[in-house]
C-alpha cells in the first residue's frame, strides 16, 4: 500500500515538473520569436493639421477639432468602442503625440496593426460599430498596457511602470515605436513597454486609430501633435530621457 502511494506521488511530481518545464519552454519560445524591422521609405507625416480632420474617418458627431486639438466626446452611451482612424495604412512606424483624458475614468488608446471591423455587430449603423477596430491597442491612462482587440484580449504587459509616470487628467507625451513584431512605448520620457508579439501572423498593415471607449457615461479625450515616421531610421525610442 505504501509502495503504491510512493509511486503515485513520484508520478505526480514528475508530471508537475514536466508541466512547469512546458510553461517555461513556451515563454522562452515566445521571447525567441523575432521579426526584424521591415524595410521601406522613411517619411515624416503630420497626421493632424491642427485645424481639420482631413485624412481621418470617424463619426462626425463624436470627433471634432477644438483649439488645435482632436476631441473625442460622447454624451450618450456607446455600446462599442469607436475610433477616429487614418485613411492610410501603416506597418512599421514611430508615432509621437500628446493625449489627455478630460472626462470619465475610462482609458483611451491608439489602435494599429489591424483593420476597421464594422461586423462586430449585426447592425453596424444602429449599434454604431462602423468605426470599430480589431487589432493591437496601446492603452492609456487608467488601464495602461497592451490589448488585442477582438482577439486575445489583454496582452502580458505590466502596466505599473506607466502608472508611475502617467497623468490621469493632464497631458501625457507618448511615443509608440512599432517595428517587426516589437512594440515599444514611452510615456513622459520613460520607457514603459517593450514587448514582442509571439504570434506575428496577427500583425497586418493597418490604419492608426484614436480610441473613444465604449461607455455608459459621458466622456472626453483629446489628442494633439500626432507626428508619424514610417520605417524609422533609428531603432530606439527618441523621447526617453
Radius of gyration: 21 Å
Assign a percent range to the helix content.
10-25%
Q: Outline, from the CA principal axes?
A: globular
Q: Could you spell the SSE succession in H and E letters?
A: HEEEEEEEHEEEHEEEEE
Runs with pLDDT <50, length 5+? Answer: 5-20, 22-28
SS element count, helices: 3
Oligomer: single chain
- Proportion of strand residues: 35-45%
Let me know the largest β-sheet.
8 strands, antiparallel
Distance from first to last alpha carbon: 66 Å
Task: Briefly note the structural class of the backbone.
Answer: alpha+beta
How many beta-strand segments? 15
Mean residue pLDDT: 91
Short characterization:
The chain has 241 residues and is an alpha+beta fold. Helices cover 17% and strands 38% of the residues. Strands 1, 3, 4, 6, 11, 12, 13 and 15 form an eight-stranded antiparallel sheet that branches. The protein has a seven-stranded antiparallel sheet with strand order 2-5-14-7-8-9-10, with no helix packed on it.
Amino acid at each position: 500500500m505504501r509502495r503504491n502511494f510512493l509511486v503515485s506521488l513520484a508520478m505526480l511530481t514528475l508530471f508537475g515538473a514536466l508541466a512547469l518545464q512546458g510553461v517555461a519552454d513556451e515563454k522562452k519560445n515566445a521571447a525567441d520569436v523575432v521579426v526584424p524591422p521591415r524595410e521601406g521609405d522613411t517619411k515624416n507625416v503630420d497626421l493632424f493639421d491642427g485645424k481639420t480632420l482631413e485624412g481621418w474617418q470617424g463619426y462626425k458627431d463624436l470627433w471634432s477639432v477644438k483649439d488645435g486639438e482632436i476631441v473625442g466626446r460622447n454624451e450618450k452611451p456607446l455600446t462599442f468602442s469607436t475610433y477616429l482612424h487614418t485613411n492610410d495604412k501603416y506597418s512599421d512606424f514611430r508615432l509621437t503625440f500628446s493625449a489627455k483624458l478630460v472626462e470619465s475614468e475610462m482609458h483611451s488608446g491608439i489602435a494599429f496593426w489591424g483593420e476597421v471591423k464594422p461586423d462586430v455587430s449585426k447592425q453596424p449603423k444602429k449599434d454604431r460599430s462602423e468605426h470599430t477596430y480589431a487589432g493591437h491597442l496601446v492603452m492609456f491612462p487608467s488601464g495602461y498596457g497592451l490589448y488585442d482587440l477582438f482577439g486575445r484580449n489583454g496582452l502580458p504587459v505590466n502596466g505599473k511602470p506607466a502608472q508611475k509616470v502617467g497623468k490621469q487628467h493632464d497631458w501625457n507625451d507618448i511615443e509608440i515605436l512599432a517595428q517587426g513584431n516589437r512594440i515599444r512605448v514611452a510615456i513622459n520620457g520613460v520607457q514603459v513597454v517593450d514587448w514582442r508579439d509571439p504570434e506575428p501572423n496577427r500583425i497586418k498593415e493597418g490604419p492608426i486609430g484614436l480610441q473613444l471607449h465604449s461607455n455608459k457615461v459621458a466622456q472626453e479625450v483629446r489628442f494633439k501633435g500626432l507626428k508619424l515616421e514610417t520605417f524609422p531610421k533609428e531603432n530606439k525610442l527618441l523621447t526617453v530621457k
